[in-house]
Every structure is written in structure tokens, then in C-alpha cells.
């Protein structure tokens, strides 16, 4: 069962089902799943990186579980006006941002020498909406998390309900993107570990080809980024668009931007006392990846009934440019060309587009 820290009490939060005793009846669940499977059977399918197949649903590739989650979010998730969603394509910095956002929003509650992030991984303080909505059958209830509630999602902007995304809703989004070449390398490492042992492994060349063709969970990568980018241009007060590379280069500058956007700007006094630097240090790759709880000491994130991912899998190298160790010149040029062509005219500069245009 998923547990989340409840900042007010520093206690573990056990999600409860909605509606009183509140189980959606088993028959109802079965009917829901039958309808889902009938709908999925009509969708284009392709090779999955973790599971055997992924399906193209509303323009994006997704596993059955993720599509189910999208439907459940639309049907049952009730956003609150103060909610803040962290959104990203896979492997673009979610773990890092989870830690930074949680530490920043709750900085009055915890002191840095005895911080919950030191005892538990970033995954345990921040529900992953895409799958946690249904992990605790029937539907997880997040109603009693304190405001602002923080949720993470990998879903594309257009895959989320308008109750979350429409300009009329006051929910905020923090989006983090990353050079697609580094996202690809990171994702291939991660997914091959998660891939069912009953399936043949997925080679790097195969993953590369699929990625370039847009075929990977939550892909196409470029459509994902552009969806949030365009929305951030239209409603900058609603969506903050960050880049992993900028955060690596100037973490304090980016963190101050993030804090102000979330409605919790650092005061002058906090800045003088070094609070910004404390948070950056607490959430750094070096610090988090060396904690016992993130080295395999029991912490983990449940994605489906069968798939539990240990905290250590969310920390690999934490570097910009690791793609150089994997991509040939030809491969690099192919991804860069796609990026340049896809981002043309958008005003977004990402990864290699900076140097190649
Ligand atoms: P997710 O999509 O499964 O949630 P996510 O956290 O977005 O994963 O990405 C993991 C990447 O962020 C890994 O990159 P790498 O494979 O290139 O190394 C991971 O190492 C990196 N990462 C995790 N925590 C941090 C951190 N605190 N600072 C910088 N990078 C980090």
C-alpha cells in the first residue's frame, strides 16, 4: 500500500477509498476493466519498453495501466485550487524536483539535519498520480493531504482532464524537460531493469529506433514537451517550464524561481541564512543517492500490483551529456535533427538546438 508523508504530522499517510465504505463494487470494477480492454483492443499498438505492448491513445503511447490511470483521473480525481502538479516526460528530473518542491514547500516544518527526505526517498513524499490513483483499490483518496497538495505525473498535458489544465483552473504545473538524448539513455537503462523477464530484452539500438519514431511510454517525447511548452506560453502563471540542464548549471537561481512560482518565495532573511543553498544541498544527487534509503535500504515505489521499483533505480549518474558514452555521431545527429525540426518556430531551445541552429 502506498504511504505518503503527511507534512503536518510527519506521519505516514494511508490512502483510504472514497465514498464512505466506499468501495466501487467489484462487479463495477470488472465492468470498468472490461470496457477499458474493449477500448484498448481498438487502439494501434507497438512494442513496449517495459511491457509487451504499448497503445496509442489520444496521440500518446501508453501501457494499459497508464491508460486506465488516465481514465480514472478523469472520472474520479478532484483537483483542488491549490494543487501543484509536477509534470515531466520519463527520466527528465522528476525525482530531483519532487525533493526540491517538497523541501521548499515544507521548509518551515522540518529542519535540514533531521529531514524526512533523509529517512525516506523522494518517491514516498510525493504521490505519482498516474498509477497511485488506482493502487489502493478502488480509488486512492488524497483529500486529506494538506494544501498545497503535490502530485507528480508523466501524462501529456492533453491527456489530463480540463479540470486540471484549463486556464480557469488555478492548479499549477511545474514542468521539467531534458535533452532528449540524455532522457533516452536514462529511460533505456531504467526500462530494461523493469522489463518483464518473460520478454526478450530490448537492445539499445531497438530502443533508439523506437524513441526516434516517438514510440515509447508517454511519447512521442517532442509532442510531450511541446504540449507543456505551448501551455506555459499561454498561461505562464499556471505552468513553470524548467530545464534539467539549467538546474544543474544554476540550481539556486532555478530553485528561487520555483519557490516564487509555488507561492512560497524565499525571504531576504532566508536567503541571508543560506536556506536556498541548504535545500539545494539536501536534494542534490550526491546527497540523496548516498542515503541508505536510496541505496536499496528497503524504500521503493509501487507502480502496479506487480511492479515495485526500488528507490535506488531512480538514481544513476545524474549528469548532463551521458549520451556521449552511448550515441554514435550518426545517432546524435538524427535525434538533434528531429529536435530542431520539431521545435522550429516554437521559441523553445532545448538540448542541442542551442548549438546547432
Ligand atoms: P522517473 O521518470 O522514473 O520519475 P526521473 O527522476 O525523472 O525518473 O529521472 C531519473 C534521472 O534523474 C536519472 O538520470 P540518469 O539516468 O541520467 O542518471 C537520475 O540519475 C537523475 N536524478 C535523480 N535524482 C537526481 C538529483 N537529485 N539531481 C540530479 N539528477 C537526479
Entry summary:
This protein is α/β, with parallel strands linked by helices and 357 residues long.
Describe the structure.
The structure is a single chain. This protein has 357 residues and is an alpha/beta fold. It is 41% helix and 13% strand. It contains 16 helices and 13 strands. The strands form 5 sheets. Strands 9-7-10-11 form a 4-stranded parallel sheet, sandwiched between helices. A 3-stranded antiparallel sheet has the order 4-5-6. Strands 1-2 form a two-stranded antiparallel ribbon. A hairpin with a 5-residue loop joins β4 and β5. α2 packs across α5. The termini are far apart. The site of 3'-phosphate-adenosine-5'-diphosphate (PAP) has 22 residues, from α3, α7 and α14.
Bound molecules: 3'-phosphate-adenosine-5'-diphosphate
The number of helical runs is: 16
**From N to C, what is the helix and strand string?**
EEEHEEEHEHHHEEHEHHHEHHHHHEEHH
Q: Class by helix and strand content?
A: alpha/beta
- Radius of gyration, rounded? 20 Å
Instruction: Using the alpha-carbon principal axes, give the shape.
Output: globular
